[in-house]
Design a protein that fits this description.
Elements lengths: L3 E11 L2 E10 L5 E9 L5 E6 L2 E11 L4 E9 L4 H25 L1
Antiparallel strand pairs: 1-2, 2-3, 3-4, 4-5, 5-6
Amino acid sequence: MSPLELQTRRQGDFDGYTIYGHMYKFHGERRTGWYVTSVSTSVESRQYWVEHDQFHTVVSHIATPPTGANRFDIGEVTEVKEVERTVIARAIEQWTREYHDKILAES
């Protein structure tokens, strides 16, 4: 798998969930994905890899030796409760739009 390059980091509160998102680009590719943590008062925090509107299981390895790079083991597509899926999708849509607006403003 190609190394990942962090593009943006965001967080926000959406309908009772706190969502933390890190958008990564695969080095040398146009492919991007979001490493997302979803936290609510009613359930434990959950992590997902979200790419092309598909939610995958994910295991993160932060600051992996010897390079100190982040690595993610992206697993199979997983089921997500509709309310949580909707909240995360809305956060990602908002953050992606803001990221692209910022890039366009800088060019």
